[in-house]
Specification:
The protein is mainly alpha-helical and 93 residues long. The termini are far apart.
């Protein structure tokens, strides 16, 4: 078995800890800032849709482009739900 130089081993372990610190430091700082009560200022970049509409209350059907209804419908194919195409909402109701 080859003997490992203790100085090189220490250097490689320090380098590994430095890499882990680079990834962990932002999460630690964000957690500390959140725990202290600081939250970044948020500015909306758009206009709200007023009046807000609830699709369930207005009985709007959300359909996939393949004409299958989205809520609770079972697909006819074996693809999981997260691979379905984006839902299309009818424009007129």
């Amino acid at each position: 078995m080859n003997s490992v130089d203790p100085k090189a081993l220490r250097k490689s372990r320090l380098f590994l800890l430095l890499i882990a610190l680079v990834f962990a430091a932002p999460m630690i700082v964000a957690g500390l800032l959140s725990w202290s009560g600081w939250q970044p200022g948020v500015k909306g970049h758009g206009e709200a849709i007023l009046p807000q509409r609830n699709f369930v209350d207005q009985k709007l059907r959300v359909q996939l482009p393949t004409a299958r209804t989205m809520p609770g419908a079972r697909p006819r194919h074996s693809s999981p739900w997260w691979r379905w195409p984006d839902p299309a909402v009818p424009a007129a109701a």
